[in-house]
Structure formats: C-alpha cells, structure tokens
Amino acid sequence: MKDKFEDLNWIIQKEKKTLLTYECTLATTEFRGRKYKAWFTYDLKNNAFPWKLKGLPGVILAFEDESGIIKGEASKIYINSDLNMPTKFAEFFDSHRTNSIQFKKVILEINKYSADLESQDLANLPLGTKVKKGNPREFSVEKSFEWEKESSKP
C-alpha cells in the first residue's frame, strides 16, 4: 500500500511533561477530519512516529485525538534492539514488497467490504426495523480523506 502526503502542520506548544523518563513537548495538528495532540521528545533523535503522525523534530511517545477515541502511548523504549515481527505481519509485508497499491484504491475496497457487511447485518434484522445510518468511519482513525473533498469531474 502506498499513501503519499506531506509532513503534518504541527503547532509546537510550550507545555511539557515527562514520559518514560523523557521530557516531552506538546504539539497539535489536524489530519483527515481529526484534531490531534502529541507528546514528543527531542531526546530521541530518530525518524519514528506512530501511524502517520509524522513531521515532528523528535519521537512521539503519546498521542490522542480530541474525542479520545484514537490514542496511543509508548510503554517501553528499545534502543538498538533486535525485535522479531509477528509472522502474520512479516508475511503480509513480504507479499507486498515488490508492488504498491494506491491508498485511495485500498480505502475504496475497505468501504465496499464494510458496506457489504452492513447489508448482511441489516438483512438479519427483523422485518420493519428502522436503522439510522451515520458515518461508517466515525470510529476509524481517519474520518475523511483528501479526495472526498475533490469536485467530481464529468
């Protein structure tokens, strides 16, 4: 899978706190429909970041969206360690090593799969049941994508 985008537009704040003995600085940004807070440290000079929250001058040790649905926090730091990747993930990455898929295509396929599952669930409800549909990605990491804002071309 391939998803190209620039570094996020982070606003570095003055707030500080300590995580795993590292002094961290608060930064905020907005990405794909969510507002994020991240605590990063300048003390670890590495290009490591969780998920797609990139572009800060250090390593993010904790992050959270404004609703508290999407969040993570480092529980341990391994420096110069040799960690084994679970077989399931290693096989997945090996199978995609020589080809790439447009990220938009992957998301559209996921949306189609989700719609099929929803249709199956709705078919199992008692006759006459009314369902209010919402945004299927409301509790996903990314609530919206750049191409959804593009105007449709004839």
TrEMBL record:
List, alphabetically, the InterPro entries matched.
GLPGLI
Domain of life here? Answer: Bacteria
Q: What is this protein called?
A: GLPGLI family protein
Species: Frigoriflavimonas asaccharolytica
Lineage here is: Bacteria, Pseudomonadati, Bacteroidota, Flavobacteriia, Flavobacteriales
